[in-house]
Amino acid sequence: VQLQASGGGLVQAGGSLRLSCAASGRAFNTYVMGWFRQAPGKEREFVAAINWSGDRTQYANSVRGRFTVSRDNAKNTAFLQMNSLKPDDTAVYYCAAGLQWGTLRYDYWGQGTLVTVSS
User: Which long-range contacts (CB under 8 A, 24 or more apart) does 107-114 make?
Assistant: First the structure.
């Protein structure tokens, strides 16, 4: 499966952005979709995940209550709605696809989209 992340940009603290991850290839609804981010000088970290049907989600503690992950299997797209953004959310955001729920093992990765939050 090929993944294309989009929707990043520059936003002021307190603002919102919605990231999209468009998938092509093998049946989208067989994949767990995850979002990760990597800030400058830091390791990549898990942000959120959603299972195949969309009825289970997971979030990192740092984003829980502010970010919402969702998916539209009919459109082969996953989303990450980010509200109440903080400067610490500045990072390159990556979407990923995997076959196992509840792990950090993902088999396919998108190219990343940059989110910059100004104070």
Answer: 108/1, 108/2, 108/3, 108/31, 109/3, 110/3, 110/4, 110/5, 110/21, 111/3, 111/4, 111/5, 112/5, 112/38, 113/5, 113/6, 113/7, 113/8, 113/19, 114/8, 114/9
